[in-house]
Task: structure prediction
Amino acid sequence: MVGIFMHTLLEQLTHGMPTQHTILPLDKQHNLDPYPLKPRLTFKANGTFKLTIFSDLHFGENPWDVWGPEQDANSTRVMKRVLGDERPDYVYVYGAISPISDMLFSREFSVLNGDLITGENTFKENATTLIDQIVKPLNDIEVPFSSSHGNHDNQANISHVDEILREQSVAPLSYTRMGPKGVGGEGGPGNYWVPIYRTKTDLAPVLILWFFDSRGGFSPGANSTRLPDWVDVSVADWIESETKIMDEAWGPAEKRGALAFVHIPPFIAQELQPGIDSKKDPGLNADLLEGLGSVQATTDPTSLGKDAIFWDALNKYIKNLHALISGHDHGNEWCVREPIKDVIFCFDKHSGYGGYTGDDWGYGVRNLLFTSPDPNKGVETWIRLEEGETRAHITLNRQYGYGHYLVETKFSGPEMGRKSIIHFYST
Result:
């Protein structure tokens, strides 16, 4: 597995490691690339990089009824329309006789942020084939992407491992992988990172996308038992060791930006919600984070606080973190600054017709646009709905959360030719 291969390389690099911030020789920097056989992901020539996040697709509900497959068809329609409308100009260079590792992708990147499948309704013999349906719109237009997984992806007939292996086998541009052996705990293999470079020839990335596995759901098999619903404590040590190796290979972390994804939100989101200000923190806020399982480490009341070790490590070791982004709670799409760690937390947008919903919640995605590879520059983000309406346009920067924004919602769609511009003003 790529994850195990990467772990071996990193273990080799830690022996005789130079002092902090010393730049490693070129050969060892190259070995730090976890995707030697995939196209290198870069910013576009104009200095931008765009991500589109699909969350909580929930394919596979009630396949024995008419409405189940209809929901999957509707979710596929959402994906195709959004990808078609939001796809920016990009450079896609194939070397006619070059190996795939020399290809360049300066285009948008998609993220599938958990609960790809409603595993409770799947059958063992065909559960993973739902992955084929999910990734087909991405494969069709050759968009590189990564996935995280949620509690509904761990059930008696499906697991995070099953979904990752299937995705890797049917999606050539999937950057999803499993972390090293021993990292992630039971049911949580999907802890990894993806480097984004300024240009094809740069030795060090300017942006790291981090993916964490919040587990939850049930173990596979006939004697299925409940799994922990928080990022395992082993991930904290892994974050520390990975960031140390990055610093020693590429220089100080302050030179790189970071963005993190985890399906189930950390417990802190529950404490942040009562202070949401719709003017300062725009976006749907219809899902109260009160019930069991609404945030990490709450399905079992005795587990309260067990996500804190991950939360502390995330904020201590990952520098220039633009935001941590979660799904799971379908009725929320806000961003807010957490004052103690001074980090921004955001919700995705419920994308799939599967899973629960509410009146006028709608279906859509969260877009993120990096307007510069400079890690100190803000990141624009907004919610785009299925029919083209956009809302909650903000900039994730050092000022966000300390001022108010006047948010203007406009309609955009293919008949308008281009995505409309959302104006925002800090007051």
